[in-house]
Amino acid sequence: MQSLFEAAWSLWLLAWPHLLGPIIVAIDCVATAHAILTKRDTRATIGWVGLIWLSPIFGTVAYALLGVNRIRSRASQLRSGQAETIRHIRHTEATNARKTEAIAPPATGLRPLELLMGRVTNRPLTDGNHVQHLDGGDEAYPEMLSAIDSASSTICLASYIFDNDPTGLEFSLALARAVNRGVDVRVLVDGIGSRYSFPSIISVLRAKGVRTERFLPTSVPIYFPYSNLRNHRKILVVDGRVGFTGGLNIRNSCRLSQQPRHPVRDMHFLLRGPVVAQLLEVFLEDWAFASGETLSLDRWMCDPSHVGTMLARGVRYGPDDDDIGKIKLVLNGALSTAKRSVRIMTPYFIPDDSVCQALDSAALRGVKVDIILPERNNLALVSWASTAMLWQVLGRGCNVWMSSPPFDHSKIMIIDRTWVFFGSGNWDERSLRLNFEFNVEVYDRTFASTMDDFVEKRIASSKRRTLADVDGRSLLVRLRDGVARLFSPYL
After folding, report:
1. CA distance 491 to 388
2. Is 196 in the same domain as 171?
3. Is 122 exposed, middle or buried (0-12, 13-18, 19+ CB in 10 A)?
4. How far apart are CA 234 and CA 410, in angstroms?
5. Helix axis angle, 2-38 relative to 42-54, nearest 10°?
6. What is the dihedral of CA 264, 432, 70, 122, to 10 degrees?
């Protein structure tokens, strides 16, 4: 009996590689077919297929865990509120007469851009809004805290980073006071962003009775700033009437007046009017995704009313979109319609070839293109990769300016002193394809001119970077930057 068992075991040892091999090949074929059929980015498809076949077991497991977009299929089930939101604010949609007044007559000026935006976002351009620029935490935080303290019914707050520091604790106390007044409060913090400080603010908020959730929580015990699939949106809506959005996180480093150790310069925006409903819509989707709780629109959304004269529209985008590349359509479309000037401020600038070509095309058409980047970046790898590709825009007539410290986290785009595009999105692949972002477009000549003048002042205090500067880097620095650029699809 023992000899029979030993013979069977010996036979198995000889046969199992021949049996396992075809199984692995079959699994790899299925994973490859899935990548080819579902991945729209050619570089990502080639990368995953190569990993699957060069590392058969590891590659297939990695693709199953990281390459399959489960977020898109899950999130699409949670968008039932979109149609209700559009119905709720449909009567505030800008008429053709108002578009002609604020933008240009049909088929002229920036009207083609407005048409593109409507088709890409599938959301109405609302009329009757007022948008106010807030310069950094010193201006934005007092306004946000005042709005929280005046809330009478609802507060929803989403932030990528919400630090457990004096500023974060000030917000947590204000939110707790609102809860004690009977206000419905929901706070959503990204799973990675909640780990920028230790201990996390999550436990502090929950201890004060504030309903708080993490977006895609991670088991990684520390934060990883290059992680993707993050909720990078910054949204605060109070009583469904007052909204805040932009690039500002909640942390002490954004209060320059307090001279923090690692100062961050940024901008945020206060919004009133029908466009606030579009901020709220995005928060409710993200909250349902993270918590499983579906909040009633009737409870959280107020009747929109005209409070100003600006035309505005919210633009959500992220890896849950059916068309992940839609934000590139927006940027390329805006650049193609520019006639006089383009102003871009972003902390992270690693666009793909199509966006670089759109920038170059605008410059070659005689449009003045100014790109303002921070002289000192908080992410070294991103800074190196960005420097390695600057020749693509410098060689065609774009102007690149390096803003002096502190690190500038501002994100804004201005076209022809008429159109302003601001929010959480950067000009890198993480924002354009891999993270959840929210921006707002505004058509208003007065507001656009004010923001254009603001950027002009920033340029006046910045250093110009030329093609000679980029070409003059040492060999070792150019090699370092070139290697960093290889990771640009994931930065």
Report:
1. 13
2. yes
3. exposed
4. 13
5. 170
6. 110
Give yes or no for a contact between 17 and 37, defined as CB atoms under 8 angstroms apart: no
Q: What single-letter amino acid sits at 15?
A: A
For the chain, give the number of residues. Answer: 491
DSSP E strand boundaries for 92-159: 126-135, 154-159
Burial class (CB in 10 A: 0-12, 13-18, 19+), 74: exposed
Radius of gyration (Cα) for the chain, nearest Å?
25
Tell whether the torsion through CA atoms of 323, 324, 325 and 329 is positive or negative. Answer: positive
Q: Give the single-character DSSP code of 431.
A: I
User: Are residues 87 and 158 part of one domain?
Assistant: yes
Residues 267 and 392 in one domain: no
Q: Is 361 domain-assigned?
A: yes
Residues 6+ apart with CB under 8 A from 255: 136, 137, 138, 141, 167
Phi/psi for 156 (5° steps) reads -125, 135
- 27 and 79 share one domain: no
Same domain, 373 and 485: yes
pLDDT at 87: 61
H/E segment holding residue 31: helix 2-38
Query: Domain range holding 20?
Result: 2-68
For residue 318, tell me if it sits in a domain. no
pLDDT under 50 in the chain at which residues? 73-74, 77-78
The pLDDT of residue 73 is 47
Same domain (yes/no): 146, 84: yes
Q: How far apart are CA 140 and CA 167, in angstroms?
A: 12
Residue in the block written with tokens 């119905």: 87
Secondary element (H or E) of residue 344: strand 341-345
CB 444 within 8 A of CB 311: yes
Contact 189, 214 (CB under 8 A): yes
Helix, strand, or coil here: 110? Answer: coil
Give pLDDT, residue 84: 57
> Are 327 and 232 a contacting pair, CB within 8 Å?
no
The Cα 412–Cα 341 span in angstroms is 14
Which of 312, 336, 352 marks a domain boundary? 312
Tens digits of residue pLDDT in 130-187: 999 999 999 999 999 999 999 999 999 999 999 999 999 999 999 999 999 999 999 9
Q: Which residues on neighbouring strands pair with residue 401, listed in sequence order?
A: 372, 464
Whether residues 94 and 30 fall in one domain: no
What letter would DSSP give residue 193? Answer: G
What local confidence, expressed as pLDDT, does residue 22 receive?
Answer: 77
Q: Are residues 301 and 373 in the same domain?
A: no
Alpha-carbon span 429 to 431, nearest angstrom: 5
Q: Which of 224, 227, 201 is nearest to 214 (CA)?
A: 201
β-sheet bridge partners, residue 272: 130, 242
Total structural domains within the chain: 3
